[in-house]
Design goal:
The chain is α+β, with helices and mostly antiparallel strands. It has 3 helices and 15 strands. The strands form 4 sheets. It has a 7-stranded mixed sheet. The structure holds 2-oxoglutaric acid.
Length: 190
């Protein structure tokens, strides 16, 4: 599939006061740093993360099951606004906290089995500007790059995750933190 711009919607100034929202989430989110085992070696993942959602909205990626937190009222308000703007439904959110440019998120597609198809992901950025790069599944060449500004909303619509991978590469010159919220719709287990 070619990179179709209608699969990506990017909107600036989605969050009214991104600086204040960044400070609030940095201090109030139940952040954790999990380990990942790759090729027999265990490493701390290069960022903090947290999972919030409806009861039963469990999520696992890279073989890490992140404990679910009940909705924080402010995160729930952001979800409501995201749903209003995108006309999509979400029941959970993965938050990432990149302490500085040495924290990162490697190549992947958001295609875990819990995600309900068609997969749409809505992503809100706060704090330092970071690049999101895109490459086709199975290829190494970076074909697109987006600079994600504080307060922005990026919607990745189906079928993007089937054909493309994305990453947030390390950027040594970035000294500030960044928080990202990616809203998802997952199946509910009892
Ligand atoms: O930090 C971002 O903007 C992307 C996060 C991401 O790719 C993910 O959580 O799956």
């Amino acid at each position: 599939m070619e990179f179709k711009d209608d699969c990506l919607i990017y909107r600036l100034n989605f969050i009214k006061d991104p600086r204040e929202m960044y400070g609030l989430l940095k201090s109030q989110v139940n952040w954790r740093q999990d380990n990942i085992t790759l090729f027999g070696k265990t490493h701390a993942i290069p960022r903090y993360h947290a999972w919030y959602g409806d009861p039963g909205a469990f999520y696992k990626y890279s073989r890490i099951t992140i404990p679910i937190n009940d909705w924080h009222p402010v995160i729930k308000e952001i979800k409501t606004e995201v749903e209003k703007v995108t006309k999509l439904k979400f029941n959970s959110v993965l938050l990432n906290y990149y302490r500085d440019g040495l924290d990162s998120n490697g190549w992947h597609s958001d295609n875990e089995s819990e995600l309900i198809k068609p997969i749409h992901v809505a992503s809100v950025s706060l704090g330092a500007i970071r690049d999101m790069q895109f490459r086709r599944v199975g290829l190494t060449k970076v074909e697109r790059s987006l600079s994600l500004e504080s307060g922005s909303l990026l919607v990745m619509k189906s079928p993007l995750q089937e054909y493309w991978q994305h990453q947030i590469p390390k950027r040594k010159k970035v000294n500030e933190g960044r928080i990202n919220l990616t809203f998802r719709l997952v199946s509910i287990s009892s």
